């Protein structure tokens, strides 16, 4: 894969362990949900490590000291529905964040995204936005979601996925070069139906137990 300057792979032993649990077809739905939330929380530390902070005067029980708070308002936007599986993990680390939603589904014939729902806080244009989706596969949904959010005023966005394909990364980087991409792993490629290989299957189905 061509080098992407804005791609950040979170190569942590605990993340690798949890990705392996998610890949395993024997992992039951309840454990899949738990591990996805846990890995999202771990990834949140890497995604937020260069967030700006403001200082303020803080009184401890013993004396005055310097306190810190995040400079930017944070908005977490999961791509429905699989992205919902990562929200709790991020909110555990960023409880002050607001949550928006963008709903896209993939046309199974064209593999192109179709939008059906969106709801964002009114502060979107002034916020640092985290767009989250477990799978960055063809890149079509991510590209469309990013364009849609920008049309609503978002101008400071980070894309967060667990598993990505080279094609998906390239599509996002080409169409939204201003958006950093964070993921746990970049897999080999896609099959004829646009699923990531080796991947972990349909993340939405496995989160919500709706496998065929």
Largest sheet, in brief, is: 9 strands, mixed
The tally of structural domains comes to: 1
Please state the second-level CATH architecture.
3-Layer(aba) Sandwich
Structural class: alpha/beta
Kindly report the CATH topology: Rossmann fold
Binned strand content: 25-35%
**Termini Cα gap:** 33 Å
- In helices, the fraction of residues equals 25-40%
Shape, principal axes of CA atoms: globular
Q: Please, how many helices?
A: 6
**Total strand count, please?**
13
Q: Uncertain runs with pLDDT below 50, 5 residues or more?
A: none
Mean pLDDT: 93
Q: What top-tier CATH class fits best?
A: Alpha Beta
Order of helical and strand elements = EHHEEEHEEEEEHEHEEEH
Radius of gyration: 18 Å
How would you portray this structure in words?
This protein starts with 6 loop residues before the first strand and ends with a helix. The relative contact order is 0.18. By secondary structure, the protein is α/β, with parallel strands linked by helices. It is globular, with a radius of gyration of 18 Å. The chain has one domain: Rossmann fold. The protein contains 6 helices and 13 strands.
Brief descriptors of the model:
212 residues; alpha/beta; Rossmann fold; 9-stranded mixed beta sheet; two-stranded antiparallel ribbon; 6 helices; 32% helix; globular
């Amino acid at each position: 894969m061509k080098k992407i300057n804005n791609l950040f792979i979170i190569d942590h032993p605990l993340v690798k362990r949890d990705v392996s649990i998610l890949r395993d077809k024997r992992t039951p739905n309840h454990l899949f949900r738990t591990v996805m939330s846990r890995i999202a929380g771990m990834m949140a530390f890497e995604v937020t490590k260069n967030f700006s902070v403001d200082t303020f005067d803080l009184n401890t029980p013993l004396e005055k000291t310097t306190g810190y708070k995040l400079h930017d308002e944070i908005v977490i936007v999961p791509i429905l529905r699989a992205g919902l599986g990562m929200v709790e993990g991020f909110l555990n680390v960023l409880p002050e964040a607001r949550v928006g939603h963008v709903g896209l589904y993939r046309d199974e014939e064209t593999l192109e995204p179709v939008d059906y729902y969106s709801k964002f806080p009114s502060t979107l244009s002034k916020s640092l936005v985290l767009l989250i989706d477990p799978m960055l596969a063809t890149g079509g949904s991510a590209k469309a979601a990013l364009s849609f959010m920008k049309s609503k005023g978002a101008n400071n966005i980070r894309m967060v996925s667990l598993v990505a394909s080279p094609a998906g990364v390239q599509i996002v980087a080409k169409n939204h070069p201003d958006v950093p991409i964070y993921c746990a792993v970049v897999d080999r490629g896609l099959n004829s139906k646009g699923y990531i290989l080796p991947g972990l299957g349909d993340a939405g189905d496995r989160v919500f137990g709706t496998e065929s």
